[in-house]
Amino acid sequence: MSTPDPPAAATFTYREALRQAMAEEMERDDRVFLMGEEVGQYHGAYKVSEGLLEKFGEKRVIDAPIAESGFAGLCIGAAMAGLRPICEFMTWNFSFVAFDAIVNSAAKIRLMSGGQVTLPIVFRGPAGAAHMLGAQHSHAVDSIYGHFPGILVAIPATPRDAKGLLKSAIRENNPVAFLESELLYGIKGATAPEGELIPLGVAEVKRAGKDCTLVTWGRMLFVALEAAKALEGEGIEVEVIDARTLRPFDEATLLASVRRTNRCVVLHEGFDRASFGAWVADLVAREAFDFLDAPVTRVCSRDVPMPYAPNLERAIMPDAAKVVAAVKQVCYREGG
Amino acid sequence: MSTPDPPAAATFTYREALRQAMAEEMERDDRVFLMGEEVGQYHGAYKVSEGLLEKFGEKRVIDAPIAESGFAGLCIGAAMAGLRPICEFMTWNFSFVAFDAIVNSAAKIRLMSGGQVTLPIVFRGPAGAAHMLGAQHSHAVDSIYGHFPGILVAIPATPRDAKGLLKSAIRENNPVAFLESELLYGIKGATAPEGELIPLGVAEVKRAGKDCTLVTWGRMLFVALEAAKALEGEGIEVEVIDARTLRPFDEATLLASVRRTNRCVVLHEGFDRASFGAWVADLVAREAFDFLDAPVTRVCSRDVPMPYAPNLERAIMPDAAKVVAAVKQVCYREGG
Amino acid sequence: MSADPKTAKVRPVAKADAARRELLMGLYRQMVTIRRFEEQAAKAYTQGKIGGFLHLSIGQEAVAVGTMAALRADDDVVASYREHAHAIARGTPLTAVMAELFGKATGCSKGRGGSMHLFDVARHFWGGYGIVGGHLPLAVGLAFAAHYRGEPRIAACFFGEGAASIGEFHEALSLAALWKLPVLFVCENNFYAMGTSIWRSLSIEDVTAKALAYGIERDRFDADDVLVVHDRVAAAVEKIRGGGGPALIEMRTYRFRGHSMADPAKYRTKEEVDAWKVRDAIPGARKRLAEMGAAETDLAALEEACEVAVAEAVRFAAESPEPPPGEVDAHVYA
Amino acid sequence: MSADPKTAKVRPVAKADAARRELLMGLYRQMVTIRRFEEQAAKAYTQGKIGGFLHLSIGQEAVAVGTMAALRADDDVVASYREHAHAIARGTPLTAVMAELFGKATGCSKGRGGSMHLFDVARHFWGGYGIVGGHLPLAVGLAFAAHYRGEPRIAACFFGEGAASIGEFHEALSLAALWKLPVLFVCENNFYAMGTSIWRSLSIEDVTAKALAYGIERDRFDADDVLVVHDRVAAAVEKIRGGGGPALIEMRTYRFRGHSMADPAKYRTKEEVDAWKVRDAIPGARKRLAEMGAAETDLAALEEACEVAVAEAVRFAAESPEPPPGEVDAHVYA
Ligand SMILES: Cc1ncc(C[n+]2csc(CCOP(=O)(O)OP(=O)(O)O)c2C)c(N)n1
Ligand SMILES: Cc1ncc(C[n+]2csc(CCOP(=O)(O)OP(=O)(O)O)c2C)c(N)n1
Ligand SMILES: [Mg+2]
Ligand SMILES: [Mg+2]
Fold this sequence. Notes:
The complex is a heterotetramer, with two copies of chain A (336 residues) and two copies of chain C (334 residues).
Chain A: E1 11-13, H1 14-28, E2 32-36, H2 52-56, E3 61-63, H3 68-80, E4 84-88, H4 99-106, H5 109-112, E5 122-126, H6 142-145, E6 152-154, H7 159-171, E7 176-180, E8 188-190, E9 204-207, E10 212-216, H8 220-232, E11 238-242, E12 245-247, H9 251-261, E13 264-267, H10 276-287, E14 297-299, H11 310-316, H12 320-330
Parallel strand pairs in A: 2-3, 2-4, 4-5, 5-7, 6-7, 10-11, 10-13, 13-14
Antiparallel strand pairs in A: 1-8, 6-12, 9-11
Chain C: H1 5-46, H2 61-69, E1 76-80, H3 84-90, H4 94-101, E2 125-129, H5 136-149, E3 155-160, H6 167-178, E4 183-189, E5 192-193, E6 196-197, H7 211-214, E7 217-222, H8 226-244, E8 247-252, H9 270-278, H10 281-291, H11 296-319
Parallel strand pairs in C: 1-2, 1-3, 3-4, 4-8, 7-8
Antiparallel strand pairs in C: 5-6
């Protein structure tokens, strides 16, 4: 995995960014609490919540038994009553045993109650493949939770975005699925201005370019930036757009870019069919139809459950080389 | 809901078609059994399995307690051991509490075992909205189960397809998600030739036309046919393609049609984002890019959990009028 | 010791008797209201005015009514899809409940929920839910919130015996027990989950045997006497509110009709149904009231009033407007 | 009664003793093999030859070894992600297991599974699974299949005490109990689920209290003596095979290392760990063997052989080829 450019000034890790966001919001609002497996005494399986138990005590940093459906449902009930739970899934893979709670309770209770119930709850944890974790532990879930109205989806790539978006998510009055990445926890990036809130629903152009729009989200941003850098050397200027949130989705920023570059590649982790990426490609193909000089192309994971062997895992995951090839293809360059 | 044309010769209902398929396959192979809530003594919540308990006995037609995760997992284990379970979800909405069993066990065990384990199992039941069942009971799940490699998806619309596909699904050596429709159980259609097997992965042109390809699956076929009929009167000849299975997906039949008609509308029930329909639209937009005279357009449900009130439900569901408008739009006709 | 044993003994007893009769009169009124309400709902359903699934609890009214009376107004309540009785016993206006069944804008869930998803948050009625077991963890969460805030509220959660087989039941009871949360789990054992009897779904017919796995309080009784329901629940609630942790109560009861309007309930013998009808809590309460000295005229007037109120609810629902079509996207996000 | 009480009494006892020693010798060999195997796996992991998660059961070997010895070769076995011991005790070649950890084509799952997903179907070892609780229903299904076919096989399912909180545990035990299926549920209570001790996850520390909810057989003991494990399991298996329905056995044990290679296990005191190390079943078995008359040279030779076999497995794994990249899409569909 590639890492972002060396930051100029003060830096912090993605992990610290998340921790700061939680700590600041917990300090600000005592209705906020954190519940999940190992979040307290163990400081989180990935050490994201280090120090929070010590700071906020057992009442607000709560170690849960292995009962995702139970504690996700518990957090939903607590949110109904006006608390503001942060419900951590050790990884999003384990959210599948809480699937009904998330999509049939959290995403639907407000509608079913005719707007009487408000659900200020954040579900968070790492999603996507890490390294050699095998078929059951490598799910990119953006296509799953991005499917259902009633639950917002944020998927930050940089530490600054992670902090600003998590703070917004915690203040949000709707359920938010907050998708992190195990492989990003250790990366460093520029710190955020004090108190910064990054609103849900605003994409960011992470690199400007005029030849092709490359839209992505989450960890794939760094794959996109690496590909963009490589293509620079070949005279192709790629505009990299980081969607940052999938629901709401910032269509305007993306479409404006494609209408300028006339080409678009969608890059995402995870399976191909019924994917969020396919929806984005369809959106662009339809809304920028008259502007496109080439079909919208996608780079995603192969349509295979993730095997353990590292060579197969590499073959399955999107990487910069695959993105470079896709961009060249839509630009009708040799080797594309 | 519209119904199919009055059939010429012998007819049977969709419900009978499914029942015959199960009975014939159970007769043929005593490893086949049916398990689910109310499938036995009650004959199925929708009477699909009427007579099966009487015919095959309690050993092979098994009423399960309300424990979808448990009995779906049980059926998966039984399939591993070489039995051929038909695991009925009273409705697919309830499969969400068995989500992990389906996507993390059934869809992955063969891969994880390096091909040692074979999983001949059919999960079946009605999916999609019926009438006024509200937010938790109206899920079209094609976009959910169509997402994951490792599990095939069939979604028949006519009684004949229901029978032929279910027989194939039961003989299939891979997990199959078989999506029926409560609103189709009572419809009648031409009977199938004795012993007919309809292979998974073969679409059918349900109506030929030269002006626009309208691709759909499941119950929406009848909405498509109704729209096609209405458009006929306006001089637009729509080719209606019934995908019949989503995995495998018959790309060839669809693309050949679009390359002839130069226009395509994708019609499906269920939410918009990360939908199987979006994947189909993306496929067509990419693979038939040079043939398209208009952007691929989609008609699907609104991006809202299903409310109970009938007027709102109608506003949310795709219907013939919406399809007519979409087809006119891609044909650049007035009112489109 | 009082000087005059007669007054000292008799007067409090008389007072208690009167209070008891008042209590029962209120419970009786609620049960009759619910019975009439559901009969009219069934009629409206057959007339096509109500759609979707309609689950009646005719025969089971004593559970909701007796339990709700033992709760405080700000205790939190969560129920299953069979929850007309619970909403009404909680105080949700009949008009708002019937309008919801009719899918009208004036419904207690603004027409979004229907019969299975009645909500009345002002009365701490946090909804009816359609996925068996799915609402149990929500109740634990409501109790968690009370506990978190140091408020003396408890959460009561109603579900059928069919739910005892599902994972969410286990996880909810397990978490509530572990953290000693103030939850009253009320299992309405009507012996059937659709057509599946408890003898075909549980290896041990006693649902409260599950409590042994968590070490929580349990109780088990027949819900054919609404006062018994009230008293036993009141005792349990007191312990829970006092910090004793959750309790699981199994109340044996019976639904006189099918699972939903679509179910002819052929899986039960006429004898079985009749035997339970004899124990119907509504005539039982009426008889008791008469014994306690309630006047026949008062009872008749009460019953008449219930019918009038239900008729008014039907009229209100019928005349109410549909939700505005322009608001089809409303109420999804805050 | 025999004429010569001395021979009549002593000979059978001597025979039994010999058989017993043979049994223990075999179990000891397996435990030592597994211990050495996992030590080498840990080493390979730190060298970057093994990736992903690696969960060792060092300290818990007696559970897998004692239990497996009480099963028949065609009984079905399912385990969690902490299952090297189980695969090896089942007879899967060390080479195939180590190659799997190395992600090689020669691995028992062809490099697709890794440490968490070892499979050896020929030996009825139906896999290790990564979602806590998710494999319990699979075991019930294997037992169902045996029952369906009228075959005398039983299914054994291994899981940690952490799994007792999850819904799938409840549903699996509930269904197995209801249908009296031949399942042996083996709870390896090592007191911790990652960093969460059983005292912080269950309201009742006794996992077998759960059996009361289903009315199934239960047993509970310390797994520091592999012969005890064998004997108690053998007794349970006999009942299960005889049609007695499922049983839940809780074995108290201890993992000497962290949850996975990433876990320094700071949540346990040195005293606690040391106290359990004193009860390590491997030296325990060795001491017992010596008491039973096993020669020190034989034991040393056995230990040496284990080390050689493990070293050979490491060499085999290292030299084996990766899965062919052209087969990246293989093994998804039959
Ligand atoms: C998870 C799930 N599975 C299946 C259903 C379908 N279903 C609705 S009600 C019901 C029976 C429930 O019985 P019980 O819990 O005893 O409650 P009762 O209807 O008797 O009040 C079933 C199976 C469901 N709603 N949710
Ligand atoms: C449903 C689910 N939630 C969380 C996890 C993450 N996780 C993996 S192992 C583990 C602890 C399991 O402890 P226990 O069951 O006692 O088994 P042990 O590791 O002690 O053998 C957890 C929480 C998971 N794999 N599955
Ligand atoms: Mg019931
Ligand atoms: Mg453990």
